[in-house]
Design brief:
By secondary structure, this protein is α/β, with parallel strands linked by helices. The chain has 5 helices and 5 strands, in the order αβαββαβαβα. Strand 1, helix 2 and strand 2 form a beta-alpha-beta unit. Helix 1 packs across helix 5 (129-136) and helix 3 (83-95) runs parallel beside helix 4 (110-118). The N and C termini lie far apart (30 Å).
């Protein structure tokens, strides 16, 4: 897979076409990368589902404490957590029937990525959707 982590262009293009994104680590802190990326996804017409310890609402969307709590299907679980914390969220994504997991730039967990891929999910790791969108996102 090389130094770029996981996610060939075809996979990234497919995942960017999914519409409901659970963003793990999204809080109201506008200085955090998760906030900027979530706002970007909203502007592309995606539904953003904030996942944070307090279950706080962010960007006008109701929040949840875990992916497991979300009462509707989620397409992508986008993880903004330290690498050592990422695996648990990947496993939640698999259990919740998500179609894809996206581990943000610098978030690396090969074992968790393998588990998700084995379960049939699309896996993108060490990439950022806001960076990939201009070249690979759906034409609006």
């Amino acid at each position: 897979m090389g130094a770029m982590g996981r996610g060939d262009e075809e996979t990234i293009r497919r995942v960017l076409g999914y519409r409901t994104w659970a963003v793990v680590g999204l809080t109201g802190n506008q200085a955090r990368p998760a906030y900027g990326v979530a706002r970007f996804l909203q502007r592309q017409g995606c539904t953003v589902v904030p996942i944070n310890p307090a279950g706080e609402a962010v960007l006008g969307e109701p929040g949840f404490r875990s992916v497991a709590e979300v009462p509707f299907p989620v397409d992508v679980v986008d993880v903004f957590r330290r690498s050592e914390a990422a695996g648990a969220h990947v496993d939640e994504a698999v259990a919740a029937g998500a179609r894809a997991v996206w581990l943000q730039l610098g978030v690396i967990d090969e074992a968790a990525a393998d588990r998700a891929a084995k379960a049939g999910l699309d896996v993108v790791m060490d990439h950022c959707p806001a960076i990939e969108w201009p070249s690979l996102g759906p034409a609006t």
